[in-house]
Every structure is written in structure tokens, then in C-alpha cells.
Amino acid sequence: MSRWVVHIGAGRWQLAAITATKKRGYLTLAVDGNDKAEGLELADEALVVDITDEQKTLRAVIKFFEKQGISPKGVLCIASEAGQLSAALIRDHYDLPGLSFEMAKKLTDKSLQRSFWSSEPFSPEFVIIDLEKRFEIPVDLQSEPVIVKPVDSAGSRGITVIKEPNAQALENAIKFATDYSKSKKAIVERYIDGQEYTLESIVVDGQTYPLVITEKHKVHGTNGTVANKLASANLSDVMSKRIVDTVSKGHKLLEYRNGVSHAEVIVDECEQVWIVEIAGRGAGFAVSEKYIEFCTGYPYLKTSIDFSLSDIIDAPTKLEVLPSCIRFFESIEGTLEEFYIPSIENVESASLFEKGTVMKQATTDADRMGYAMVKGKTQLEYEELLRKVEESVKVKISVE
């Protein structure tokens, strides 16, 4: 029996998964396009390949295992949007458990998702722009606020919010979005003004099991596209159920029956729930790696690995979500000299940039100096701890 597990993506947020599979006794092959990716050294073997190129990645993995004379046991792509299609193509080739290529396309392409949801009340008006074809933006999307996004990117990259549309602004936003799109496609949607939430869940045999709903807090000056805090949502049971039911309907329309899910939604002033997107992976930036288990006790990372190795996920039992958050400290223009959070009970923190890193003003979710996860037994205890963290964090930045 093969003891090899392939990890597509070998950056910071894949290290825990590589370590976990090694502890289970598996040999690990890490694949990443960045030859400096930390997981390449951690794994037993490594390949430097552009994981956004599915065919190139597949060929490299096939060549590796042909030399070994065996096939892999499983393929993992934890908390990485970029490698989802490559991982799925390898699974299909070796007939392995986990997301198929067809399902991975549905869960990474916003234009496909909108096509499946086009008649649903939770999906706003939209148009798909293909730069290689002639296109025309509907009149109603030229006269009201819109958001322009790549159809196949993540982490707030390539996004523009246009409050007062005009031809030049739309052209610039579409060009910006397609610069971040592998397919050179953008989606123009009616902008929904409201509070954004995420739902982290598990889907088992077509049923959606919620783990935690978080409320997104955004960085000022980014048009609401960059988050600096995800806090456990203090919602009524009715509203929580409405969010879960809406995302569950989204899963069903995509025919997503088994796996992990990271969904983003907006609740407007009329309390209508709108789906922004659904991903068949855990969220990055320590959310799937640490935060979900930190606030619920549910072993989310273990479950993600189990799904990709056995195609079986046990449905979670009723969970208690502690008042909590993961607080991100966004980058500021300058050179980072120090980022430090003292040790505090019920707080876990980490620096994401090395000393001497030249930073820019935050424009995407990747622009973060560090984070702190905070939880309390009560809302008041949690809020007091968070205030203590924010008052005690030490940041030193030099500006030339």
C-alpha cells in the first residue's frame, strides 16, 4: 500500500497539514511554485512547479511516482485556492478521494457559481466579462454601485468597488480584475451594501453542518474588501439559521455533497442573505488551521485531511462556539522593525512578517503583519481580553 501523500501548496498555511500527515506515518511530497516555500523543506520530497498550471503539475507528479513505481494515497490542498484544480486533476488521474476536477471548478469559479444560482434570490444581478470576446454591460449595472472581481481569484485580489459607475471606471476595474484572473475573465455584480459574514461548515451526504459564523470587520479605506478581524457572530437563532439555510441551498445547487466549506455572505439592511461565494476548502490565514478548533473544539484540520485520505467525514455533533475572534494587524507602509504580542491566557498570536520586511499599505488579505486569536467564556470576558491585546501589541515601523 502506498504511504505517499501529495500536498499541493507548501506555504505557511500548509505546514500544519504536512506535519500532521507525517505524524500519521505518511511520506509527503510537497508541490509549490515558490522555491522558497517553507513546506518544501519540511516534506520528504519536493517539486517546484506552478500549481496554477494543472496540466504541468499533473505531469510532474505522474513523473515522480512513475520513478517510485507506485501511486499516491491521497492529495491535499489545504487552505489554498490556487492549487485546488491541480489537486483535483491529480485525484481524478489516480482515482483518489476528495474533490473531483468537475466539482473543484464549481467551487473555484465565481462565474460558474453565479450560473447555477442565477434564478435564486440570494444571487445579485451580474454579468461575466471575457476579454477575448465582445461584451456589453447591462444598463442597470451601469447606473448603480457595482463590485468587479476576477472570476477565479481569492484573498481580495483584483477587486474594485465602484459606487458611481462610468465607462472609464468600469474599464479600469475590469482590466484590474482580469490581471488577477487566469482565465482573463471578470464578473461585474450589483454591489450589496450590508454586513459580511463567513460560514465555516462541513457537508456530509448533502447536509450542511455549521461550525462557526464569523462577522467580518474591514480595514478603513479599502472599500470593504480587506478584513482585519473575524469575530464569532452574535446573531439571533433566526438569522443564524437563515445564513446556514441559504448556504446549504447554495451547496445543493452546486451538487456539493461531501467536504469542507468556506462561504462568504452579506446580510443587507432588510436582513436578506446574499451569497458572495462558496469554496470547497478551509479559509487561510490560520482560520482553518487553528481558529475553528480554537473557538469550537472541533478538529477541522484533521477532518480536512481525513476527507482527502478516506473520502469519509463524520458529521459534527452540536458545538459550543465561544465568544472569540481572530484579529489581523494589517500592514502599514514602511519597514517592519518589530511586531510583538506578549503571552496572555486564552490568546494565541503570531507574526507573519520577518523583521526588515518592506511593507505597503494593506490592499489585500495578504497584507498582514500578524494576528491574535482571542476567546473568553463570556462576551464580556472576550471583549476585555481583545482590548488588552490591542493595547499591548508592540509595532515598530521605520519610514524613509
From TrEMBL:
What positions does the domain ATP-grasp occupy?
112-309
PROSITE patterns tied to this protein: ATP_GRASP (PS50975)
Report keywords, A-Z. Answer: ATP-binding, Ligase, Nucleotide-binding
Q: Which InterPro entries match?
A: ATP-dep_AA_Ligase, ATP-grasp, ATP_grasp_subdomain_1
Fetch the SUPFAM superfamilies from UniProt: Glutathione synthetase ATP-binding domain-like
> Which GO MF terms does the UniProt record name?
ATP binding; ligase activity; metal ion binding
Q: What is this protein called?
A: Biotin carboxylase
Instruction: List the taxonomic lineage.
Output: Bacteria, Pseudomonadati, Pseudomonadota, Gammaproteobacteria, Vibrionales
